[in-house]
Design goal:
The protein has 359 residues and is an alpha/beta fold. It folds into two domains: 134 residues, ATPase, nucleotide binding domain (Nucleotidyltransferase, domain 5); 184 residues, ATPase, nucleotide binding domain (Nucleotidyltransferase, domain 5), CATH 3.30.420.40. It is 46% helix and 17% strand. The chain contains 13 helices and ten strands. The strands form two sheets. Strands 3-2-1-4-5 form a five-stranded mixed beta sheet, sandwiched between helices. A five-stranded mixed beta sheet has the order 8-7-6-9-10, sandwiched between helices. Helix 4 packs across helix 13. The radius of gyration is 21 Å and the shape is globular.
Length: 359
């Protein structure tokens, strides 16, 4: 059974066709990085406009790559939230129109659940399925959540960020230091050249739920570090590099970045990773998890992947491949497959929800 998935929650217009919940027949993503990079972050109005331009050709290409026609599909799935409401509306409305015209059922998918199913999909394809109960750490530019996941698709929220998401903190620190947007991948690339213990950061002590996260304090600590030093010329040089080079090489970044700043980047990344894995380990132990899944855009971070292998997690750890870590529609179609079997279909008047919760 084939499902057409559509994803447009933020700044990626994506469509994919997935068969039986695990075989990816096509996956097409149209990035808006060049549109938003000059502004240092996603501009919601521009994102919506770019989705409108891309949605039809992206869906058409996904169907062509899969060698599928509408009457070959069992359902159409689309992200209903969370995300930017204007962006969500484009993908969801187009999915509704396809559902209405074709008579195929519409399946509404939570974006966060999609990230979890990206891991489940690839684990099944590799012949090493995720064992339940599983702990899911979903960490991206918009989300940092810990969930207990049961085998029948139920979720229990264990912890979440109280302020910035981890990916958002990476991007804001990178922007502050003149590295442009998106900054997370650049920080990851340059952190390997720095000393991760050179700058000491104080971790937030959480009142209430000890499994919650907070990254605003780390971001503020970086700001104070910058303010205590005369870095205007250094930051200006990197901003000029961003304006003149679409994708600076590591050598170009290193020429514009003194060792003290490289140490700061490495120390900041190490602090974020420590926060993530400390709470993930505590959660996995508390719930006696049989698997740990780490997904979302920050799951691409090489430092996080390396640290997870060395961490004392009580069970196997699963990461999605980089292509399924960032926003994509294959994960939306995969998450829709269990809903198709349970016949959990959405009405055509379903609304996009910017703050849709999973549990």
């Amino acid at each position: 059974m084939r499902i057409l998935g559509i994803e447009s929650s933020c700044d990626e217009t994506a469509a994919a066709v997935v068969e039986d919940g695990e075989k990816i027949l096509s996956s097409v993503v149209a990035s808006q990085m060049s549109t938003h990079g000059k502004y240092g972050g996603v501009v919601p109005e521009l994102a919506s406009r770019e989705h409108l331009r891309a949605i039809v050709p992206v869906v058409r290409e996904a169907l062509e790559q899969a060698g599928a026609r509408m009457n070959d599909l069992a359902a159409i799935a689309a992200t209903a939230g969370p995300g930017l409401v204007g962006s969500l509306l484009v993908g969801l409305t187009y999915a509704k129109s396809l559902s209405f015209a074709s008579g195929l059922p519409l399946i509404a998918v939570n974006h966060i659940e999609g990230h979890i199913h990206a891991v489940i999909l690839e684990a099944r394809r590799a012949g090493t399925p995720v064992e339940f109960p599983a702990l899911a750490l979903v960490v991206s530019g918009g989300h940092t959540h810990l969930f207990e996941v049961s085998g029948d698709g139920r979720y229990r929220l264990l912890g979440r960020t109280r302020d910035d998401a981890a990916g958002e903190a990476f991007d804001k620190v990178a922007k502050l230091l003149g590295f442009g947007y998106p900054g997370g991948p650049i920080v990851d690339r340059l952190a390997r050249y720095g000393n991760g213990t050179a700058v000491r950061f104080t971790f937030a002590k959480m009142k209430g739920n000890a499994l919650d996260f907070s990254f605003s304090g780390l971001k503020t600590a970086v700001l104070r570090w910058v303010q205590a030093r005369d870095l205007e010329a250094e930051i200006a040089a990197r901003r000029a590099l961003v304006r003149t080079q679409a994708h600076p090489t590591d050598e170009e970044w290193l020429a514009a970045t003194p060792q003290d700043t490289l140490d700061l980047l490495a120390s900041f990344q190490q602090a974020v990773i420590t926060e993530l894995l400390t709470r993930a380990t505590a959660s996995a132990n508390r719930m006696e998890a049989r698997s740990v899944m780490i997904s979302g855009g920050v799951a691409c971070n090489s430092g996080l992947r390396a640290a997870a292998e060395l961490a004392r997690l009580p069970c196997p750890v699963y990461f999605p491949s980089p292509g399924l870590s960032t926003d994509n529609a294959a994960m939306i179609a995969a998450a829709a497959f269990p809903k198709l079997r349970r016949r959990e279909f959405a009405a055509l008047d379903i609304a996009a929800q910017a703050n849709l919760t999973l549990a």
